[in-house]
Design brief:
single chain, 254 residues, alpha/beta, Rossmann fold, six-stranded mixed sheet, globular, PGM_Phosphatase, glycolysis, isomerase, His_Pase_superF_clade-1, His_PPase_superfam
Length: 254
């Protein structure tokens, strides 16, 4: 029987972005809106985010050639594509950037009318939405014109099917966003709402943090992906890169 899953799967959150920095500035100033000039799709990495990506590149480059990723999938957002490009430039990927698979199903959770608002801004401008979120919880709450975690999970089910169909037996790197990392864990490990939200409450996924799975053929009827590490930041610590785990700009509705 042909192997359905990748042999190895790394899921990496992008390096620190200018949006992370702007969010921190908005909360420090106690204002309701986050000052970002670009669309969320176009928000670049910060200088620290570039340093984190460079450190992760050195970690991947130190792996034996036969253990590095041979398939790269990224969200279409600039900060994720740039993270992958820097990893490649540092010798960590044999895959050329022109061969990266840019998949919109790996994009950031969409925040709709709450985009660029802090918790204070949401309470001031859309108090009814703050109350809906309190009642429904973050897993099911969908802001107008935005997405719930369930909506993200729905598109990720399709993305995982594509990975299984086209990349079984390969070594796959996915560069994406915090909610996507968590929702992929939910799917790959068969979690419940309570289980994944408990992990979320433990802390944010670090910028350039690595979540790694390996295929175990002895699990289940046809094998299963087994978690090897989660939110792994040792590559950054060894390289002396700054560790950051800021929520994305719209953390109030994440």
């Amino acid at each position: 029987m042909q192997q359905r899953w990748p042999q190895r799967l790394w899921i990496v959150r992008h390096g620190e972005s200018a949006g992370n920095v702007a969010r921190d500035a908005a909360y420090a100033a106690g204002v309701g809106r986050i000052d970002i000039a670009e669309r969320d799709v176009d928000v670049p990495l910060s200088r620290q985010g570039e340093q984190q990506s460079e450190a992760l590149a050195r970690w991947f480059a130190a792996l034996p050639p036969g253990e590095r990723p041979d398939v790269v999938l990224t969200s279409p957002y600039l900060r994720t594509r740039r993270t992958a490009e820097i990893i490649h430039a540092g010798g960590g990927l044999p895959v050329e950037p022109t061969e990266f698979v840019v998949d919109e199903r790996l994009r950031e959770k969409e925040f709709g009318i709450l985009d660029r608002l802090t918790a204070l801004g949401i309470a001031q401008e859309h108090p009814e939405q703050a109350e809906f979120r309190r009642i429904l919880g973050k897993f099911y709450f969908r802001p107008p014109a935005g997405e719930s975690w369930c909506d993200v999970i729905l598109r990720l089910r399709s993305a995982l099917d594509t990975i299984s169909l086209h990349h079984g037996g390969q070594r796959v790197l996915v560069v994406s966003h915090q909610v996507v990392v968590l929702c992929l864990r939910y799917l790959l490990e068969g979690m419940t709402e309570e289980q994944i939200l408990a992990i979320d409450r433990e802390g944010d996924v670090a910028n350039c943090g690595v979540t790694e799975y390996a295929f175990d053929p002895d699990q289940g009827h046809s094998g299963r992906m087994q978690l090897r590490r989660y939110n792994f930041v040792a590559p950054l610590e060894v390289a002396g890169a700054p560790l950051t785990a800021e929520p994305d700009a719209n953390a109030a509705v994440r």
